[in-house]
């Protein structure tokens, strides 16, 4: 069992443009994200799921969420990273992690089903 503290960052399911993600819905995304969290908790990680609501507040919200927390690893989800329209949001999140949690490793998943693998690579 691990005692590592993990932060997961991704879009809030209510703000995603599902036209870009055929077959996905807010209900499915929420279930996947919460399932990722639950799987990591079952593996012994202490996990906090942080939702991003918009690009304008992403940096400040992430910085605030990370400050004062001894996170070991921060995952920035594929929904942020793989959507070219959100390149600047991804950049903001990376810099927020760098500033507010410099001790944390940063990892990335390719989709919600491989989040645990991404975390295990770096913890």
**Most strands sheet:** 4 strands, parallel
Could you name the ranges where pLDDT drops below 50 across 5 or more consecutive residues? none
> If you average the pLDDT, what whole number results?
93
DSSP strand count: 4
Task: Tell me the radius of gyration.
Answer: 13 Å
Order of helices and strands: EHEHEHHEH
Rounded to the nearest angstrom, the distance between the terminal CA atoms is 12 Å
Please, how many helices? 5
Shape: globular
Helix content: 40-55%
Strand adjacency order, main sheet: 2-1-3-4
β content, as a range? 15-25%
Structural class: alpha/beta
What would you note in describing this structure?
The chain is of the alpha/beta class and 123 residues long. 45% of the residues lie in helices and 18% in strands. The protein has 5 helices and 4 strands. Strands 2-1-3-4 form a 4-stranded parallel beta sheet, sandwiched between helices. Helix 1 links the parallel strand 1 and strand 2. Helix 2 packs parallel to helix 4. The mean pLDDT is 93.
Question: What is the strand and helix layout of this fold?
Answer:
Layout: E1 5-11, H1 26-42, E2 46-52, H2 55-66, E3 73-76, H3 78-81, H4 87-100, E4 105-108, H5 115-122
Parallel strand pairs: 1-2, 1-3, 3-4
Notable traits:
123 residues; alpha/beta; four-stranded parallel sheet; 5 helices; globular
